[in-house]
Amino acid sequence: MYLIIQGSNVETTDLKHLAKLAGANGIEQIAPNVFRLTNASPTADIGALCEQARLDYAFVPEERRLADFRLLVMDMDSTLITIETIDELADMTGLKPQVAAITAQAMRGEIEYDESLRRRLALLKGLDESALVRVHDERLKLSPGAERLLAQARKHGIRTLLVSGGFTQVTDRLKSRLGLDYTYANTLGIADGKLTGEVLGRIVNADAKRDELIRVRDELGIGRGQIIAVGDGANDLKFMAEAGVSVAYHAKPVVREKATHTIHYVGLDGVLNLFNYH
Fold first, then answer.
1. Which residues contact 81 (CB under 8 A, 6 or more apart)?
2. Whether 264 contacts 56, CB under 8 Å
3. Which residue of the set 14, 56, 68, 75 is catalytic?
C-alpha cells in the first residue's frame, strides 16, 4: 500500500514520524505538499498524528490508476461548490438562519431530507426566480481544486455526473460552464416569475441520487469498481455506497465514517492524489 499524505503545509518531522509509524521504506514527493510513503501499513496512531498536524492521509493500493475509472459522481452544494444554494436564496429574503438550521439538520441525518426540503422551500415561497441567477452570478464559488479535478477526469476519459438536491437553474449553468457530462437536480415550481415553494416531480433525495448514478452507470456499461463518488452530507451516502472508491470531502462525521477516504484539509484536487495519474 501507499500512504498518501497531503496538507497545506507538511512538516518534515511529521512526515518522518508517519513513515516510522507506518513502517514505510520510502518517501516520495509527488506534488507540492503531497507525499507518497511506500510499502506502508496502517496503524491507529497515524490518524491521530495527522489530525493534530491538520493533514489528510489515505492508504491506497499501489496499482490503483486514475485511467482505470470511467465515472466521477459528485454532490454540488458544499462539495463542487462552496455554498449551500438554498441557504443563499434564503439570505436574500432575510431567512438564512432558519433555512440554514434545517439544512444542517438534514446533512447530519437528523431529519429526513424530503421533509427538510419541503420546510425550507415553504419559507421561500414568493421569492422572485431572478434570485437563482443572482446566487449563481454573485455568490457561487467553486471549491478549491474543482476545475483541476474535472480537467484531469476529462484527460483520462472519465465521464462526470453531478447529482444535487439543489436546483436545475444552477446545475444547468454549471454543466455548460464546466463541461459536465450529466447533471441531475430538483426542478423548482415557478408561477408568474415567483417560486411556488414546491418541487415539480420527484424530489432529488438520497434514493434519487443513487438511482441516477445507477442509470448512468448502466448507460455507460461500466461496473461499480470503475466509479469514484464524492460527497459531504448524509443524503450522499447511498450514491457513495455504489462507487468503487468514495471520498468524504470536508464532510459530516457520518459520511467520514463510511467513505473509503476522507479529505478534510486540502481542496478537491486532493482526490487526484488518491490515484496514480502522474
1. 140, 141, 142, 143, 146, 174
2. yes
3. 75
Reported as a single tens digit per residue, the pLDDT across 94-133 is 888 998 899 888 878 788 889 989 999 999 999 999 999 9
DSSP string, 200-266: ESS---HHHHHHHHHHHHHHHT--GGGEEEEE-SGGGHHHHTTSSEEEEES--HHHHHHSSEEE-SS
Q: Which residues contact 42 (CB under 8 A, 6 or more apart)?
A: 1, 22, 59
Integer CA distances (angstroms), 8 to 54, 239, 255, 266, 267, in order:
8, 29, 23, 7, 9
In order of their start, the domains of the chain are 1-62 (3.30.70), 66-278 (3.40.50.1000)
75 is catalytic: yes
Q: Of the residues 14, 56, 68, 77, which is catalytic? A: 77
**What is the reported pTM?**
0.93
